[in-house]
Amino acid sequence: MWTDHFVLKDKDGNVLKEKNKVEHLKVFLDEMGIGENDVYHIKSDVSGYEFEVTAKTTQEDWREYAKDCYMALD
Question: Crossing angle for the helix pair 22-32 and 59-71, nearest 10 degrees?
Fold first, then answer.
């Protein structure tokens, strides 16, 4: 079974968390809270796709990114 690996970084490039499911990073950020001026970056190791997360990032944005990354596993 193929799995992905996602890395969450802050705007300065510091690694905050690494997970095999992007949904777990969403939960982490939701619990931490995203400030109005905060910017985070997630990168998939398998697809190389990057995702910018701000306070304005919607649930649909998360779903689309996750779907694109999972499709790259095929």
Answer: 160
